[in-house]
Amino acid sequence: MASTDRIKIALVGNPNSGKTTLFNLLTGLNQKTGNFPGVTVDKKSGFSKLPDGTTAEIIDLPGTYSIYPKTLDEQIVQDILLDPEHSQYPDKVIVVTDASNLKRNLLLFTQIRDLGIPLVLVLNMMDVAQLKKLNIDLRGLSIDLGVKIIPTNSHSGDGIAALKEALTQPLVKSKRPFYDIYDLAPKTIDAIKTEFDLTENYRAYQYAQQSVRLNFLNDKEKERIAKIKDENGFYDVPTQSQETLGRYQFISDIVDRNVKNSRDPLKKSVSQKIDRVVTHPVFGYLIFFTVLMLIFQAIFAWAEGPMNLIEGSIAEFSGWVKGILPEGILSDLLTDGVLAGLAGVLVFIPQIAILFAFIALLEESGYMSRAVFLMDKLMRKVGLNGKSVVPLISGMACAIPAIMATRNIESWKDRLITIFVTPFMSCSARLPVYAILIGLVVPEQQVLGIFNLQGLVLQALYLLGFLAAIGSAYVMKLILKTGQKSYFIMELPGYKIPSWKNIGLTIYDKSKTFVLEAGKIIIAISIVLWVLASYGFNDNFRNAEENVRQQVGENASQEEYEVALSSYKLEHSVAGSFGKIIEPAIRPLGYDWKIGIALITSFAAREVFVGTMSTIYSIGASDDDEVTIRERLREEKNPETGGPMYTPAVAFSLMVFYAFAMQCMSTLAIVYRETKGWKWPIIQTVYMTAVAYISAFITYNIFS
User: Which residues hold GTP (predicted)?
Assistant: First the structure.
């Protein structure tokens, strides 16, 4: 009979060991994201059905090289594994290692093994080890390490079934530690074991080593540990160094005994040969910008067909709903509120999916690490830490996880500058705004016979954000007087063929997040906006029919009257009145009160701009109008000139404004949490708004 129990299994390993790919293979689509209890560090967890019927919750812990944390993300691994009372404390641990680099990867395994937690060791990337001509004696290695070993290939999925089967079996704890820490501090270990009722020597040793950083210990417990250490002459740094060197000596002996390399040591690997080109000081940058150009070209060229299909389908469905429902509030709410907002969500799924597909492809193949390494040389010249490149590149997807990724930067000043400038990077939420405005004023034509002009403009906007980030970082460097040099050390993983299943899961996960998270905000604001745009409390709104009759005259047709009435009511509604209030401030940028409403509502999420415009122009349209939002914007007239409202001057001004303005209120909230105060979020918002306003003003006047 199948078991209905649920167990927790932690997935730990070094960065670039294939841990995330393995997580996706174990959990498939059954994943969820959130925060670890008490912190803002991202947590991914999912569920996997084991062969005996047990449901296992797989918790993907942040990548780390050892149990001694250097960053806030790595601190999570320590907090969970050293605290048996933690809500995420695992019943079992899967330690994922890169089979082609065992000497480096096994340090973390030996530390977790000595904590006494049941575990299984996964030798991942066996295909890479074979390419390097490494012959691994799995049986001998298993005996020497005292653990069950499962070889896997996360690219092909080989070994996953065996891993699931192993997790159903009792994982016996080894009676002997891998490295006997007791001789380094016997009195201290005994005293802490007695004080805290611990059974494992290594756990007690970790209490002594890291008591200051262990969040689950209270102040009195930390003071007691400090007193025990002082009484027994325990010194952290020299003892930790001795432990680490001792572990590496044992690891080296075991690996040398069980892993043989049959490759000519003088022959360069394929990765080394490729790196000579992609990290070249000249060709490397050309390749990097060519890759970016390909991405932006694809976003327009490949997404155009699916976007037209989605737009047309929603327009037809909206017309069908209007046709079957009687005229009234319900019909207007569904078509002009809900469906208009939904159109602003679904239409951009193809472009979002393509963007994240490329990002996942670059990460999976190993090229993203090279791009980060290459751009580090530029980062250091403007005062940024080399590790700032990761948040900046991540900012092209979303500023929130990108800002959280700054926790890997040890220097507070470097971290603050990175947090300050990251929102300048154009995130995926700005993509819908760029896409609809570019589609309005930039012709779909070829440049030099191979480049799409719309794609080139999109790339220019992303480059504009990057230059703004770099320039602002340099200004911040001068203000904060960060004169010290920044250094960047990172591991370049070997190149590998991407896992298409993993890329597919990434596309699905990111697209789902866009629809469910951004979509909820967009549709909710669309409904609220519909209410505000459909009702008013002033005399002009109450006397709308009489006033419009006088304006259009008695000879106007019923259709002309209804269009004029809808437009008049919108202008004098609650939303229209508010737009009129802020219109004088934005008129120098070429914007009217309708755009003003969108600027305000889109602070909830940048994508809301499109939903807002959809709602506003749906309300102002006739009941049988089934044209898409892009066509409505194209047909909008400027009441002062009689010409198109969305001229190149207005459209480019809007693009530049959105390229520089603070992304959204969620970004503001995460900056507040990461800087622990409102000082920097306020300064950041004021600065970015000023840059956006001045730049948009200059752009409007240039193109006018």
Answer: 13-20, 38-42, 60-63, 124-127
